[in-house]
Structures are given as structure tokens and as C-alpha cells.
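Hi Y.,

Following your request, here is the sequence exactly as I used it, all 323 residues.
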Amino acid sequence: MKVFITGVAGMLGSHLSEILLSKNFRVYGIDNLAVGRKSNIKSLLKNKNFTFIKGDINQKKNIFKFVKKVDIVVHLAAVKKVTELQPSYKTLITNVFATKIVLDAVKIYKKKLIFASTSDVYGISEKLPFNEKNNLIIGSSLAKRWSYAVSKIYCEHLCYCYHKDYKVNLTILRYFGGFSHKSSFSWSGGHIPQFIDKILKKKVIEIHGDGRQTRSMGHAIDLAYGTYLAIISKKINGEIINIGNDEEISVLDTLKIISKKMGTSMNKLKIKHVPQSKIFGNYKDIRRRRPDIKLAKKKLGFKPKISLEKAIELVINEKTKSN
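Below is the corresponding structure, written out as C-alpha cells. Let me know if you'd prefer a different format.
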């Protein structure tokens, strides 16, 4: 089976490619390397069943050329969330425009699509765990931080439109926080890779707000495996499915686990609490985030295999080796 992955050099795209190649799939992947790293796919470039294209997902010719060649498209590439000081135009326009190009291509060539959405779409909902049928409650339009969630909600509706109106076979996966040694170790990669990196480099660790906000984080290999299950499933079409780890833990407690596993105590760390308003302006922080993954278990047979603590250990080991 042939698969085309957008955002292939990112964390999720590279782990997914490894799984697919191990199952004898033929993988074509595109990435402009703005966020994704060539080092993430270095070992894959030697594989005769893997083709890498350095290119932009907004270039229609690139997308149509490779969608035509394959059986399934996995659209992972996106411009992520921004702070109040960053421009949000690219996030909004790129995510929507590129998704429409992909949808037009899979419609014309009658291919199956897996579309990557995000847990951010649940917004400030307080109804936990987040179920796929929940209402989506988004914060103020005056906060740029919501541009990523809004772009993904629009894309979900666009996907559903193509599914209902044009009979496109597709599945929307709402990913909850993932991390691995292939993560971006900047803010966009999430708090866990950042904490590990800062401790290794003995730098100041910034915590947004009081640190008591909770997140459900899992290893990217689990997210990639959930994606693989969606690729091979013949039972799902037109579904929205949560993929992630349902362990819920606060940012501060996560830092405690990391510091302990790295052999240092919390009182020796340089911690700086940064007010949310300083980074995100009018953004109201999501206090709790935990997925309901019953549908993923039922429809895909998905269950995360790597615990949060084990995932942290794996990243620490890989990061320590590379340093």
C-alpha cells in the first residue's frame, strides 16, 4: 500500500513513517523543514520504499502529483499555535488553504484521507473527559492563541463537507499532546521536551501561570500507532476520533517526575512563573485536558502502550545520548 504524508519530517510524521516502512508500505513524504527536521528522517532516507520531497504544502502541483500516486493520504502538516506577539495570519491561512488543496486532490483521485486535528478544538470546555460529541467552546477572538484551534475547527467542517457532499472517504483524528526525542525542543513542542532540555542545559525553566493546569501527554509512538490503525481500518469513514494518552497530570507534577528521573531536586531548579497574559494576552488558559478514548478503542482497537513516566524516561535517555 502506498501512503503520502504531509509534514513527514515532524515528530509524528517521522514516527508514523517508521511504522509504515516496518509493515512494508511505500511512503512518500513532503516537508518544507520549517519545523520538521531532516535528522528525524535520516535513517529512513536509505530505505528504498521511502521518498522525501522538500516542498511546501501550499503548492498545488506538489500535492496533486503525489496524491495521484498513492492509496492513502495522511495530512499532518500545519502551522501551530502562536503567542500574542507572533503573527497569526500564517496559522489561519496555511492550515485552511493547504487542507483544501489536499481535499480537492483526494476528491479528484478518489483516495482515502486521514486528517490531523487537535485537542485544542475542545477549547475551554469543562466537560471532562473530552468526548468527540462534546460541544466545542472557544475563547475570545481577541486572543491570537485561538487561531490554531479555529483553523482546525474550520478544517474539520471542510473535511465533513467533502465527506458528505463529495463522498470522500476520510477520518479526522484529534490528537492529544504527544512528545518524543523527535519533538521540537522549543515552546511549540510542548512543556515536557522543554523541561528536559532546560534541566540538561541548567537554564531557567519557564512555567506558564501557576503550573497547576493539567494535560494528558503521551509518547508520539502511541499517536503514530493510532494513526496506523486508522490507515488500515476498513470500518471507519466520516468519523472523528480522539487519539492520545488519558493519564491526566499537572504541569508542575510533570516537572517533579522529570527532575526526579534526571537525578535533580526541584529546589535546585531555576523556575520562573510567567503570567499567561504576558504570553497570550486575552487568552483564557485551558485548566484541564483529558481525552475520552473509548471510541478509539472500539473502532480501532487503540490503547496507549507507553505510560507517561516511561515516555519521559525514553526521551531523557535519547536526549542525554545526543548531548
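The chain has a mean pLDDT of 94.

Thanks again,
Q.
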